[in-house]
Amino acid sequence: MKVGIYGGSFNPIHRGHIALARQILRKAHLDEVWFLVTPLNPFKQASSDLLDDDERLALTRKALADDPQLVASDYEFHLPRPSYTWDTLQALSRDYPGHQFTLIIGADNWAAFDRWAHPQDILQHYPVVIYPREGYPVDAATLPEGVTLVNTRLYRVSSTDIRQRIREHRPVRRLLPVAIYYDAIEAYSKR
After folding, report:
1. Chain segment 156-174, per-residue pLDDT in tens
2. 8 Å CB contact between 35 and 4
């Protein structure tokens, strides 16, 4: 099984995340995309509007419930922290030996990829799919073997903007999955 690993805080998950994952699923010929909800790093000060791990996971699961190819995962919750992508990929490969994992990252992360832990090891052992991000051009002709730029739509929606809109009582209905609309309003209104 070919599985794309899409990590993030998903604070909250929004329609852009889901639409992007569906495009990557098709264009990268994956069987599933796993949304790895990133746990709060205990060594960092939490921002006041970051929901706790289990709340973000619950919202992500509920938002993806109708699409069996998109899976919310708490896998990183059970790894030593901080968990680096290389450690997560190795642990996934060990726990799911029949799966082939592909790392999904935005062009903004690709721009900083050489500063990640073990970037060459990741490139040597795992395919990487890059999706476009505004302001971060990627020349596909210069990418190393095993790294692919997929031409996906740019989504100009952000979790930060959604949280601010909720605090300011501005509309977010078009930005959030229907399944979590009321839950997200309630959860982030308290922040």
Report:
1. 899 999 999 999 999 999 9
2. no
